[in-house]
Amino acid sequence: MISAEDLIALVRNYNPKTNAERIERAYEFGLQMHEGQFRHSGEPYFSHPVAVAAILTEQRLDDATIITALLHDTIEDTKASYGKVSELFGDEVAKLVDGVTKLTNLQLSSRETKQAENFRKLFMAMSKDLRVILVKLADRLHNMRTIKAMRPEKQVQKARETMDIYAPLAGRMGMQWMREELEDLAFRVLNPEGRQSIIRRFITLQRETGDVIHRITGDMRHELEKAGIEAEVFGRAKKPYSIWRKMQEKDQGFSRLSDIYGFRIITGSEEDCYRTLGAIHQRWRAVPGRFKDYISQPKSNGYRSIHTTVSGRDGKRVEVQIRTRQMHDVAETGVAAHWSYRDGVRSENPFAVDPAKWIANLTEQFDSEDDHEDFLEAVKLEMYSDQVFCFTPKGDVVKLPRGATPIDFAYAIHTRIGHACVGAKVDGIRVPLWTRLKNGQSVDIITADGQSPQVTWLEIAVTGKARTSIRRALREVDRERFIKLGKELARAGFENVGRKATDKALDTAAKHLRLKDRHELLARLGSAELTAHEVVEAVYPELTKDDGDAISPRRAVIGLEPGQKFDRAPCCQPLPGERIVGITYRGRGVEVHAIDCDRLTEFEDEPERWVDLHWHAGTHPAVYGATLDLTIGNDAGVLGRICTLIGEKKANISNLEFVDRKPDFYRLMINVELRDLEQLHSLMLMLEAESDVAAVERYRESKKTAVAAG
């Protein structure tokens, strides 16, 4: 464990004016509070907060952040209180520690709706003080470095959460080195064989070609010296996960990948960056389409650099990044550069962004508590996307994710412009709204009075702001239709448990589900954002519980190893009573398929992954989803009768989606929750006998064929 003196020495390297006595007091307080606590590895627990603080010194952060790292687990895991921390170290530190504690308590890997809500809370915590997330990222980095001491299932959970949330968040904040390390540490847990395979191939490649990095670095230095440019040149092989991702994206083997080496050139001035680019392109051939100038068009997190890819020795491609020292500091620390110290004073880096403005860019379009899912989708789009820069007719720059369309451009200017958009001109030429925009293009949006967003725009739009605005507008247009459909679904759902969907019952459900009123509840039910089961359960939870004598879904399948988990395959949706087989997945347990599922052909060459399974004999609860492909007449009351019939068969409708609308017929997909195959056949026979039902089939995703009723 690093001593207090050594930690203070690390801080003094960049901040000679640090309050050493305050850091030492925090060290002693944390050590005292965590006394007697140990990590899974057997080390004293306090070694973890100290290591987190040491990671933050690499980003040259202020005293308050270092002290927060030392105390970040005290309020949650020890007898220390918020008041005590505030009294000893000030309100600033206490608020930061409390913020980290709240982040730690967010279960970011739970199911989607909950995850969306927690993601919003995460960003709200960040908006108060971004240093909270800097401490949390350093905390996650150290936990991933020491993850081997955890139980295997816990390792997989933490690694998946790291890969999905924390690694892209670090990248979005500009800390690319941390993103790469987090990804690689998670990759080591989630796919150890894949990672080892990449490393083995690297070793073989180095044995065959020698030290490529050393040779190319020398060549670059020689070219820069010839051009009279003073610069530092660094080369490295890309991380195993980065290479694995390229292999997956390009569907290529390792031997066919070319740009597996990266080189960085640090110059003295912006002018030298462009002179360096010229020298590199004179010596090596540039690869078309692989040039990006983030100096003239920086990323929103302050990142500036020139990126180019050139063909090096033996036709191998290498990626080159060119930047100044100040740009490099921001590239290493990202948004954290705002708090960085150098020689005892806050770093005056002209490229560091204001964290408050940065976070506002991600959250400004979400002004309602109801948009958790939209918020999650938009944040993921923002974090995983690269950017293109386009111009308005007046010459203003609009930043958009790669793949953005004129629809996204219109909404980026103003929601009103987006709603009224009927067309666009790109570089003076009229183009379809689905056109993908490219760097440097000038875009002119054509609007018309009376225009409103179309459903098809959701397939065209890429940015979170555009998709959220379109959904809101469509929701208002479709609100009455959704409310009407929601009433039918609610009536059938309540009748299924012997109750009526009265206004009072719906008001109670809306209040329990934290919705504005029953009209909002019915609109969400009709648009499939809620299920009838959730609405009924909100009012009558005791009526929706499993029958006490029914077989628990957790032990519904026989043939699993002790403690082994299973999931029903979404492609074939197997039901109790069907012959089934299992396919094992590392870290996920077993996926159960119907014996006639087409997807099983994908595993014919992997017999070791097959598990012989069968359903437990006895009565099962009606919790197993199946999808019916239904074509019904377009007459008043038909859908209501169909919902009633399904309810009479004690089958709960969990989702309903129209897939085709004709003047005479509707085709829709209905998700029903059933006990077993026998109930499915009984339900389909009854629906087939109904005069207003033109066709009923069981829908299976992979086969897209039906099991005929009876």
Structure described in brief:
By secondary structure, the protein is α+β, with helices and mostly antiparallel strands. The chain has five domains: 4-190, Hypothetical protein af1432, CATH 1.10.3210.10; 195-346, Beta Polymerase, domain 2; 473-538, no CATH class; 557-615, no CATH class; 624-698, 2-Layer Sandwich (Alpha-Beta Plaits), CATH 3.30.70.
Q: Average pLDDT value?
A: 82
**Pairing-aware structural class of the strands and helices?**
alpha+beta
What is the CATH level 1 assignment of the largest domain?
A: Mainly Alpha
The largest sheet is: 6 strands, mixed
What is the CATH third-level topology name of the largest domain?
A: Hypothetical protein af1432
Sheet-strand content, in percent, reads 15-25%
From the N-terminal CA to the C-terminal CA, the straight-line distance is: 70 Å
CATH superfamily label of the largest domain? Hypothetical protein af1432
Instruction: Give helix % range.
Output: 40-55%
Q: Name the CATH architecture of the largest domain.
A: Orthogonal Bundle
Please give the domain count. 5
- SS elements, strand count: 22
Question: In terms of per-residue confidence, which ranges show pLDDT below 50 for 5 or more consecutive residues?
Answer: 365-370, 703-710
The best one-word shape is: globular
Radius of gyration: 29 Å
Tally of helical segments: 28
Domain HD: 45-144
GO molecular function: GTP diphosphokinase activity; guanosine-3',5'-bis(diphosphate) 3'-diphosphatase activity
Catalytic activity: GTP + ATP = guanosine 3'-diphosphate 5'-triphosphate + AMP
Family: Belongs to the relA/spoT family.
